[in-house]
Amino acid sequence: MKAVLDIRRGAPGETPHNQTFDVPFEPGQSILDGLRALRRDVDPSLAFRFACINANACKECMMLIDGKVDYACTVRLKEGVTTLAPLPKKALVRDLVTEIAPPDERLHLKS
Amino acid sequence: MHLETDVLVIGAGGAGMYAAIEASRAGASVILADRSLIGRGGATVMAQMTVAAALGDREPDSWEYHLSDTLAAGRGLCDETLAAMVCEEGPGRIREMDAWKVGWARDGEHIAQVHAPGHDRARCVYVEVLSTGPAVSKTLRTQLNLVSGVRRIGDLAIVDIVVEDGRACGAVAIHIPTSEIVTIAATSVIIATGGLTRLYRRNSASSNMGGDGYALALRAGAPLIDMEFVQFFPIGHLAPRLVGMDPIMWDPFRYKLGGKLLNSEMHEFETDYARSDQRSDGNYVLTRDLATYAISKEVEAGRGSPAGGAYLSFQHVPEDVIRKSFGPVVDRLAANGIDLATQLVEVAPIAHYHMGGVQVNAQLETNIEGLYACGEAIGGANGANRLSGNAITEAFVFGARAGVNAAERAKRARTRWSDAAAKPAVALLRSAEKRDTPNPAHLVADLQALMADKVGPFRTQQKLGEAIAALDDMTKAIGDQPWSSAEPFDTVLLDWLDLRNMLLVAKSVAVPALARTESRGAHQRDDFPGLDDSWTLNQTIALAGDRLDLAKRVPSSRKVPV
Hints:
The complex is a heterodimer of chains A (111) and B (562).
Chain A: E1 2-9, E2 17-24, H1 31-41, E3 62-65, E4 68-71, E5 80-85, E6 92-94, E7 97-98
Parallel strand pairs in A: 1-5
Antiparallel strand pairs in A: 1-2, 3-4, 3-5, 6-7
Chain B: E1 2-10, H1 14-25, E2 30-33, E3 51-52, H2 63-73, H3 80-99, E4 106-107, E5 110-111, E6 124-125, H4 132-146, E7 150-153, E8 156-164, E9 167-175, E10 180-191, H5 212-220, E11 224-225, E12 230-239, H6 250-257, E13 260-262, H7 270-276, H8 288-300, E14 310-313, H9 319-335, E15 345-354, E16 357-358, E17 371-373, H10 390-412, H11 419-430, E18 433-434, H12 440-454, E19 458-459, H13 461-478, E20 483-484, H14 491-515, E21 524-525, E22 538-544, E23 547-553
Parallel strand pairs in B: 1-2, 1-10, 2-7, 10-17, 18-20, 19-21
Antiparallel strand pairs in B: 3-6, 4-5, 8-9, 9-10, 11-16, 11-22, 12-15, 13-14, 14-15, 22-23
Helix pairs in contact in B: 1-4, 1-10, 2-3, 3-10, 5-14, 12-13, 12-14, 13-14
């Protein structure tokens, strides 16, 4: 089966652009599985956060999936287009990565 | 940016957070750095399992019984002083966590304890339902917020430890979102980066468990010990695809419900191996290394499941009993299309834990003054095979000890930060060059496949030799100049820095594995089956220039007061 991931990319100060990727998958695989395969096979510069990979323990892979805030590790790949975008209310770092650390756990503290 | 602190803790899993808390309580200023977010990465948060401690509330128990089980599991190679520290101080830490409201499951008025494989009695505590790790992480995060003097910094990857005149004086790091180079002056540095399971294709690791701390220690001049002993968890989830769950979550199901391991002929094969191996006590529960052996041999004999493992069955357990024990998890399984009452799942050995690690003394200090290590990052306490339930216990005990000792040192020593000593790591980062090919994420996958195929649980001289040659080729291929995508959150640079660490660490596993011409615990040589008494020795490995040097030592015995 084949999923199409339509991913909003870009860094702060740039005009965001969308890029689509075809991702072969087996039923049950997650959006995060698809993103990791894309980095491995197509574009290693694609940026997204994750730590625990598939346990839904680290809660880092939160993003906008088809317009809804969700975890990339628990939403499944599906046939047809899935849109991915960074969290809208957090500062953008790049691509799907946003600044989600608590303010006092960042290198640059706001003074 | 340049930062200064008494104690730098690298890694914010269970061991690192405990170290930071204790160092702060002992009066030190602390920077707790993690390449992921604080308390989210690492292995602790993923642990759905049990934690061993001889509490003795429910039935009589003693830390010495726990030690005896730990040493037996370690197959003669444990550093007894470190193993005894885990067993003796474990109960105090478990009760401290209880007072911090971690929520250990209760059995009447006592903390509930279950009987895990390799233990002589019910000794393992847990948090319902399969929530031990998240509960532990959350509790330690809360305590971190309560102590003063801990500066927590996420998204900060430590690139190298800075050593001047044989003393650690800080580290060079990269801030992931901006690629800004950060130098950190510290009187004491604690490595709490966990294990190396990300080196393998199938693993239960977080994405940041690529053995960073081992590479940091080696390049700082500190030797590693017991690196050939990688623990494979026998019943990692294999199929059907399961997401939103820890792949090793089947173990508590087995303890509680007595799941059966079946081969393709629907034969319950574990008993065959229990009877034929004198190391087992004959119970149906095999220790982890024996269960890994049993499943792998069944697969090899052509009796594996379709995806290449064994079947795990709970079909003999009434549905209401399954639901009563694991209700919320049953729903999560249903979301994955899995119904245990009617369906078998497939499981297979999966890289899970590293027995080896940084060599430390009883103060958790390496041979580099001011450089400490704790948790899974250290080697010695578990010998050739870790007893189940000891990983979180050692994270608490070693973390706390390293934190106190590092803080005490900071009181009596003076930091002499050296720009000159930091220069090579800073220059390395500055030399990063924008490159589109080759794909470093693909090289990581290649490395994982190589390690799984050639340096897995069952090894031969030929496979290990091929692995070492391939690792040398890959090391040449990545070169000395980092690759970069020249953007914020530079994933290409991170992959390159990871490869720099992972290739060094992979070789530090393969080299002692090739030298150890026997089978013991987690290290099984098809060409040298059976334990060889003359190999009741630890191997240490140190970096000398570009060369890895092996040495042997007699396992450290415990000094018992007369």
